[in-house]
Design a protein that fits this description.
About 30% of the residues lie in helices and about 30% in strands. It is α/β, with parallel strands linked by helices and about 70 residues long. It has one domain. The longest helix is centred in the C-terminal third of the chain and has 11 residues, at about 45-55. The model has no long low-confidence stretch (mean pLDDT about 95).
Length: about 70
């Protein structure tokens, strides 16, 4: 079974790598979509780096702001 996890983020630079590592360590066919709302703390850059660390498993959607 494939599982998709969607994580909305805003100013989660410190937390995003931790939760991503924990999710990726699970024995599941899991994909992660990070929704990044133009955080001023650099969350978007961290999210982009995670796509390189987990190719094909982590994706990022950059948005211009919160809804």
């Amino acid at each position: 079974m494939k599982i998709a996890v969607v994580i909305p983020t805003y100013n989660e630079k410190e937390n995003l790598p931790k939760i991503t590592a924990q999710l990726m360590a699970l024995p599941l066919d899991l994909r992660l979509l990070v929704i990044e709302d133009n955080s001023p703390d650099g969350t978007g850059k961290v999210a982009d780096e995670l796509t390189l660390q987990y190719p094909g498993r982590v994706s990022v959607m950059h948005r211009t702001g919160k809804l």
